[in-house]
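Design job #97: recover the sequence.
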């Protein structure tokens, strides 16, 4: 019998991008997974979260639900991003405590790190400076979950962990123009330009920022492993530890998609943080795991998936 056999788990956001991949792994390993849907449980309300956990009686709650997106959505919906994530995080953790959930797994973000540090971001640097202004409304709210787990641990003996994800990409991401992160945005632009024989694709910023890209199925594997075996209240980074410039990413997407036209760099669009790469030494040691999918392989799979599911992918906000 494996760790997950017969275990009851709630995955908030389990029908979303990352959450749906987590659910697939848990189910394949024999867990009984419950995914709360918005129409039945509004997780911004404490009583709805509590009702959900009292009904489903989970041993473990993986909180993957979030209102988030790429650099543009933080400019369009900064208030909504702040309020929804802060209130949902606080209430889901409080509901876990009240319902006697044995372990809470918080899905955090690399946007929580200081925005102007040099070098890779190790867990002990989480509080070493101000967040980047383009993501502070999102990053700060996610970081509060770690503080809440720490405070609840001290006062109530609550067990909660905080996983800090780098930029994700892959099947079932948001390909919506306003919401998408850079990989999904580029995949859509290059595939559409190829299909429509467009002469040009517009890309944003200067191409100089460096990001780290983790394939979503790899990230889901890491979450499942950490839920099994990582029990420290101090955060754990989940990433590849490898930096890729936006220009390199654009070139790779261009090549794999088979686009034949020109690129236009729109420098009126923001670059955001210049470098964002997680230090993953602790992840490798604690989980005994490294992400199996390299960027070329993941991007090829993602472009293939997007071509096959274009209508459904474009319809998702
Ligand atoms: P961030 O990682 O939070 O800054 O968010 P994004 O993934 O949205 O953006 C990462 C970088 O990719 C930024 O420097 C963007 O300017 C750049 N970028 C280049 N082209 C695009 C595009 O078409 N869409 C988005 N979202 N970003 C782009």
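Job complete. Output follows.
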């Amino acid at each position: 019998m494996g760790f997950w056999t017969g275990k009851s788990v709630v995955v908030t956001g389990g029908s979303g991008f990352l959450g749906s991949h987590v659910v697939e792994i848990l189910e394949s390993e024999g867990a009984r997974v419950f995914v709360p849907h918005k129409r039945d449980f509004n997780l911004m309300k404490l009583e709805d979260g509590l009702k959900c956990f009292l009904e489903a009686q989970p041993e473990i709650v993986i909180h993957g639900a979030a209102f988030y997106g790429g650099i543009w959505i933080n400019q369009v919906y900064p208030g909504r991003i702040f309020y929804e994530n802060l209130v949902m995080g606080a209430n889901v953790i409080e509901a876990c405590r009240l319902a006697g959930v044995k372990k809470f797994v918080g899905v955090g973000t690399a946007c929580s790190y200081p925005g102007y540090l040099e070098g890779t971001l190790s867990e002990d640097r989480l509080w070493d400076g101000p967040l980047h202004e383009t993501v502070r409304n999102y990053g700060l709210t996610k970081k509060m979950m770690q503080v809440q787990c720490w405070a609840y641990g001290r006062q109530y003996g609550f067990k909660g962990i905080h996983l800090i994800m780098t930029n994700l990409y892959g099947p079932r991401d948001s390909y919506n123009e306003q919401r998408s992160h850079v990989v999904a945005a580029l995949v859509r632009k290059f595939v559409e330009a190829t299909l429509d024989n467009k002469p040009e694709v517009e890309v944003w910023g200067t191409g100089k920022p460096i990001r780290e890209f983790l394939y979503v199925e790899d990230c889901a594997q890491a979450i499942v492993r950490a839920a099994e075996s990582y029990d420290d209240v101090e955060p754990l980074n989940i990433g590849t530890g490898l930096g890729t410039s936006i220009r390199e990413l654009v070139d790779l997407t261009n090549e794999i998609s088979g686009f034949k036209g020109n690129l236009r760099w729109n420098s009126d669009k923001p670059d955001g943080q210049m470098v964002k790469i997680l230090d993953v030494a602790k992840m490798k040691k604690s989980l005994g795991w490294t992400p199996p999918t390299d960027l070329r392989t993941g991007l090829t799979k993602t472009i293939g998936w997007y071509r096959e599911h274009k209508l459904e992918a474009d319809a998702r906000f």
